[in-house]
Amino acid sequence: MVKEKPNLVLLDIILPKKNGFDVLEELKKSPVTNAIPVIMLTMLGRDEDIKKGFELGANDYIVKSQHAVAEIVEKIIKFFGNEAHPAVAKAMADKPASAPSSPEATEGHNKATAGKPETAEIVDKVKETPK
Question: Is domain 1-66 annotated with CATH 3.40.30.10?
Fold first, then answer.
């Protein structure tokens, strides 16, 4: 039974009791939850996994290792429209596109992101910005 109807579901495939594909299938079969957008957010990036996610009704499929956190947040915000959250759109404009992959990149990343908002700050701005 659904107590609250969310505006969006972020769903991983690897879950403790059942896999995310089964959960997605259940969500899309239920008349109560079938219209809720679902974004698959997972480490599984094989073509067959992506295809299956879309076939079962996912609205988007994001492979965690292929996207920086800021890009993931940006995709989620797009479901609600950037106009609804101008403070977030401004904060996102200054975020780097990818995470560091080496000690040298980490140093460069730290310099580039000094004084820039972290993901938690961006989420807080979403909550604070009037719709």
Answer: no
Torsion of CA 81, 119, 72, 12, to 10 degrees: -120
Give the global pTM: 0.61
Phi, psi for residue 112 in degrees, rounded to 5: -70, -30
Closest CA to 115 of 99, 91, 98, 97: 91
Nearest Cα to Cα of residue 89 among 61, 113, 69, 70? 70
Spans of all domains in the chain: 1-66, 68-131
| pLDDT one-digit tens code per residue, 84-113 | 455 555 555 555 544 444 454 445 445 544
What tokens appear for 34 in the block? Answer: 């079938």
First to last CA, the chain: 29
Q: How far apart are CA 124 and CA 57, in angstroms?
A: 30
Q: The tokens of 78 are what?
A: 């797009």
Cβ count within 10 A of residue 38: 24
